[in-house]
Amino acid sequence: MTEFGFIEQLAARFVALPANGFEGIGDDCAVLPVGNGEALLFTTDLLTEGVHFLRAATSARELGGKSLAVNLSDVAAMGGRPVATLLSLSLPADTTDAWATEFMEGYREMSERFGVTLAGGDTTRSTAGIVINVTAIGRADATHIKRRSDARAGDTIFVTGELGASGAGLNDILAGRYDTPAAAIHRNPQPHVAEGLWLGARPEVHAMMDLSDGLASDVRHILERSRCGAIIDVERIPAAEGADVQLAACGGEDYKLLFTADAATSEKLANDFLEKFGAPLYPVGTITADTELVWRQNRRPVERDWKGFVHY
Ligand code: ADP
Ligand code: MG
Question: 3-state SS of the chain?
Answer without folding.
Answer: CCHHHHHHHHHHCCCCCCCCCCECECECCEEEEEECCEEEEEEEEEEEECCCECHHHCCHHHHHHHHHHHHHHHHHCCCCEEEEEEEEEEEECCCCHHHHHHHHHHHHHHHHHCCCEEEEEEEEEECCCCEEEEEEEEEEEHHHCCEHHHCCCCCEEEECCCECHHHHHHHHHHCCCCCCHHHHHHHCCCCCHHHHHHHHCCCCEEEEEECCCCHHHHHHHHHHHHCCEEEEEHHHCCECCCCCHHHHHHCCCCCCEEEEECHHHHHHHHHHHHHHHCCCCEEEEEEECCCCEEEEECCEEECCCCCCCCCC
